[in-house]
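Changelog excerpt: complex records now keep ligands as SMILES alongside chain sequences, and the structure block spans every component. Example after the change:
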Amino acid sequence: MTILQAFIEALESLNSNKLRSGLTILGIVIGVAAVIAMLAIGQGAQNSITGTISGIGTNLLFIFSGNDQAELRNVRPLTLQDAAAIADPFQAPAVDAVAPFIQGSNIEVASGGEQTRTSLGGVTPEYFGVRNYNVAEGELISEEHVLGRASVAIIGVDVAEKLFSRTEGLVGEIIRIEGQPFRVIGVLEKKGGSSFGSQDDIVLIPMTTARTRIIRRSADRVDIILVQAASAESVPQATEEISSILRSRHRTDIGADDFSVLSQQDFLQTVQTILGVFTIFLGGIAAISLLVGGIGIMNIMLVSVSERTREIGLRKALGARKRDILTQFLTESSLLSLIGGVIGIILGWLIAYVVGQVATATGNAFTPAVGLDGILLATITSTIIGLFFGIYPANRAASLEPVEALRYE
Amino acid sequence: MSEPVVLAQNLTKMYKMGDVEVHALRGLSLQINKGEVVAIVGPSGSGKSTLMNILGCLDHPTSGSYLLDGEEVSSLRDDQLANIRNRKVGFIFQSFNLLGRQTALSNVELPLRYAGTSAGRKEKAREALIAVGLESRINHKPTELSGGQQQRVAIARALVNNPAIIMADEPTGNLDSKVGQEIIDLLLNLNKERGTTLIIVTHDPRVADQAQRIIRVRDGVVEEQE
Ligand SMILES: Nc1ncnc2c1ncn2[C@@H]1O[C@H](COP(=O)(O)OP(=O)(O)OP(=O)(O)O)[C@@H](O)[C@H]1O
Ligand SMILES: [Mg+2]
């Protein structure tokens, strides 16, 4: 018996019991579709978040206080003076610009009858350069605003939409942040969505104003210091320089640093690790349903073997060898899983596509990615499952004694 | 013309059913020569089918020796037996045993497939069907054929590999006497034209009387030959 013959015979046999074959295939379809969809969604999320982080800029560094690599008793907060020291071109030649930043989340912003909750940043003029932010209309926060603790605000387009239902002609409007009046001096350019939530859902005000009136930080304390290195290549050098400045300022020459300097690369790595685990986890759950589908194949093949005992006996009487019978049943079971696999791939891809469409429609730009490796993996696994779960029934068939099989009713 | 095709000596077959031992064959010996037409008769339960299964290499004897076409087969492995069944023996059953899903042609092709024949397989199967007078039913399925026609397909299947022996276990048991006689005529004709050895197990004396020799089996041994 050639493979082609075995294939055609298996098709005929599966075709003779369409409903049963269909249901068995369905089990595999669901399993494979789940695997493909989960992997695609996981991969899509990874791509999208990675893209967002890459968009931050390759020469950007973030300084946080604290250090998750070590247990620290006494963590000194980052201060404006730390920022000033890092900005010193003689101490840190690899550093281009420094922007201290304080932030508040879930801050109430209102105008007229409308109100919303958003995140708020207290910034200095350097912030805009470092983050590469620009206004679509109006002006940026200036040195004078910071020194004068001016009650001025720059708003993101999402906030503008929510409060005013428009994104233009807003300069000069008055908004209330936590009940206090601020004059809008500019609207940020639209940045677009990301998996972290929209970057346009933000209000920026002068750091001094934020500290004294909205967020209330003890004098000179900042949450994050953003640093722009001279170039992507000078990121490691800038990291070194920043670390040594902060070590001497925080007197942590001995012992662990009480601050962390993270580059875009570090973020990428962390996020990718987390999302990788997440994807494997999702895929693993989906794989369980594939396993269940495999057990379905085994079940149906066992039924089929006992139903066809006489047929097997006859084939043996006509000269079929053990391996002929084995091939016949294995071909059937792997065909079941192969067909299920192919349909499952298509269905899984469709599910992923729909999820992507829904995500995009709700404002989270996100494209599920069906990789060739995922498809290959699903095809191979489903076929292997067909073979694996088919072996026991097929072997049972092949080991039947011809006389006994022929006598079977 | 006394070259033996079947030479069985002291065949025994014992079935164990729990503690009870059933001796279906008790030291049976027999010889059948090339080209002979032999009928095996005997009361029900005397061991005829057991004997046929062993002679047709479907089953192993518990002890004894069996030379089929000069080859000792009682000690062969399963796959070798499959090969012998395929090449040397054509089996015809009382209940036809055709594959219901396949056409007459595919049913007849089956032994050729297991023989590994690929060239001219369809042609050979067609010739076999013509030889049994079914040229007009080649693409019919068993459910679309009468009992006699189904048995003809089974005969075509048995002879398609040109075996040395055709063994038939009550081939007319499920047919009325007229159609049964047609089947017997067909088998006798094969013997005449091709010299195929025929062994027929039957209950019907009219069938047995057409054989050259009748072997009577009783309680697992040959009672008499005539
Ligand atoms: N698989 C088996 N297990 C146990 N005993 C068996 C088995 N097959 C046959 N026998 C016994 O062996 C004896 C011979 O059976 P066999 O089928 O050869 O008889 P037979 O001559 O063909 O009968 P019939 O004319 O009714 O077909 C019987 O007593 C039967 O009960
Ligand atoms: Mg019998």
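Chain B has one domain: 4-225. The domain at 4-225 of chain B is CATH 3.40.50.300 (Rossmann fold).
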